[in-house]
User: Which sequence fits this backbone?
């Protein structure tokens, strides 16, 4: 990419162990977004789930409205709204309201729905989820651009549907589509020329699939007269850093195994496949996560950039592998020592320091000469008086 600046963010499903108090867990998610806002993170994407017990935010729009009131700068996205679960007109109208309430800080991320048992509860078959997502997204894009839509399908019926408010963001709020193993997300995002959220891991095998999806995105965008901009590509990965590798490993003993068990038992992504006894060893051996130091995280992100050809934002999966104190420390270390490496914020200071250091003898001599000259002038005035 011509521009190497890498935006930072999180992808908050969230993941909370079954024995935790759910009210306090959700409140801690809000506190995490506040913490990231103070640290200068750019984005937080909030998921929608309705079953399984671990991912317990049912309405990302409600969460975003709350978080927006407690933060100042961070942008907040639905990560993602499951389009087959909602009437597209009502959903678009709600998101426009949220765009106004947040003064343009909201982002509209969409997908087909990750948990099949969520869809089953409302009578949606897994095979229908992606076609339904495409139908809904096409309508939502038209509505957000001010069009009037009349369209009837097997699951919604719109008659002269037109939004009564325009987006606060102009021309429209930012949109993105989740893409993982299936090409459906890349096809949908490319067709409309909107952002792509690559989820499903960052092992070498997963990165190869993400790269294929980007190629699909590019081809689809060009076919529809849209520009394929890598800055609109966001990649979700997994990190936990501490001052030492040993400390990082000790930190993740808190919650990594519970996270892994959830994916063995319930989750639809094979982040930790069944039959894997040591999740820590598996993730590191397969390069599916970075558990180590800030330097390890820099090297890991460099690999992702090289393997993908470049993307616009790195989103850390908010996984709760460590306890709250160690989690906060992780994000602080990332913000202080890792993200600046990819954002060019340290180089001007380093250049300024190097220039002052390399010319220090000259500058010290000039300073001493200026001081001595002032002393001499003072003595001359005293002598004249």
Assistant:
């Amino acid at each position: 990419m011509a521009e190497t600046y890498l935006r930072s963010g999180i992808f908050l499903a969230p993941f909370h162990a079954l024995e935790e108090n759910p009210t306090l867990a959700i409140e801690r998610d809000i506190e995490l977004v506040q913490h990231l806002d103070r640290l200068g993170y750019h984005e937080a994407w909030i998921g929608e789930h309705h079953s399984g017990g671990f991912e317990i935010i049912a309405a990302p729009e409600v969460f975003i409205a709350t978080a927006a009131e407690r933060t100042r700068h961070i942008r907040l996205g639905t990560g993602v709204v499951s389009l087959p679960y909602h009437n597209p007109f009502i959903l678009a109208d709600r998101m426009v309201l949220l765009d106004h309430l947040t003064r343009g800080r909201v982002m509209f991320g969409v997908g087909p729905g990750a948990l099949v048992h969520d869809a089953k509860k409302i009578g949606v078959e897994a095979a229908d989820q992606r076609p339904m997502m495409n139908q809904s997204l096409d309508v939502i894009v038209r509505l957000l651009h001010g069009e009037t839509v009349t369209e009837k399908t097997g699951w919604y019926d719109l008659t002269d549907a037109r939004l009564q408010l325009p987006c606060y963001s102009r021309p429209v709020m930012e949109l993105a589509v989740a893409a993982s193993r299936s090409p459906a997300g890349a096809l949908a995002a490319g067709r409309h020329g909107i952002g792509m959220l690559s989820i499903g891991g960052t092992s070498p095998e997963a990165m190869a699939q993400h790269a294929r999806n980007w190629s699909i995105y590019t081809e689809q965008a060009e076919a529809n007269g849209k520009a394929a901009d890598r800055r609109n590509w966001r990649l979700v990965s997994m990190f936990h850093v501490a001052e030492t590798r040993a400390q990082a490993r000790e930190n993740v003993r808190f919650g990594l195994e519970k996270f892994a068990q959830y994916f063995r038992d319930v989750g639809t992504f094979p982040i930790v496949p069944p039959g894997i006894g040591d999740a820590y060893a598996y993730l590191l051996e397969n390069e599916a996560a970075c558990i180590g130091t800030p330097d390890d995280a820099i090297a890991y992100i460099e690999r992702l950039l090289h393997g993908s050809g470049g993307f616009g934002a790195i989103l850390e999966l908010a996984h709760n592998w460590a306890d709250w104190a160690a989690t906060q420390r992780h994000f602080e270390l990332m913000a202080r020592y890792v993200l600046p490496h990819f954002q060019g914020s340290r180089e001007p200071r380093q250049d300024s320091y190097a220039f002052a250091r390399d010319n220090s003898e000259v500058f010290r001599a000039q300073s001493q000469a200026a001081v001595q000259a002032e002393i001499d002038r003072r003595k001359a005035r005293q002598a004249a008086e």
Remarks:
- The chain has two domains: 7-345, 351-384.
- Residues 7-345 form a domain with the TIM Barrel fold (CATH 3.20.20.30).
